[in-house]
Specification:
8-stranded mixed beta sheet, 8 strands, 5 helices
Length: 182
Amino acid sequence: MILSSLELKTLTSEDLTAILELDQACFGGLWTMEGYQRELDSPNSDLLGLFSPHSSVKLLGMGCFWSILEEAHITIVAVHPQYHHQGLGQALLYFLLQTACDRGLERATLEVRASNLAAISLYQKFEFQTAGRRRGYYQDNGEDALILWLPDLQYPQFQKKLQYWETIIRYELANSHWSVDS
């Protein structure tokens, strides 16, 4: 079996065109170029991307979180529609959580559309728990958001979970013919 390589890297201003293309493909233009530039410039933002030299799509996926006090507030997990169901979302979420741990953050949180069952399932695999609901949170259609939490990122048992998830993710990526360089 031949594996295509994936490269994880911190996104920069040089990636803005690819970021906007992925945003358009996944969200229909959720954030503007200026919004992404603010994220790239902020010392409190981590914006990670997955690339493959063998893909016609420049940026296959991206994830972002804000460091707010001791918390990683995950704002984006996006995978290009051509690459869904190949483990890339899991890989991005894993790398976001690993980066949050490396920053010394103690917990992670995010909002997700109540109807986005695929995303909710992904977050539940990583043991996120529902902590509440924001009614009418999404401006485009008034849909509710679920608030999800993952505590104890700095505890030794969470570090063991990260190691376990990394093994599972690398295996699942290989089943989809990917290898990841991080």
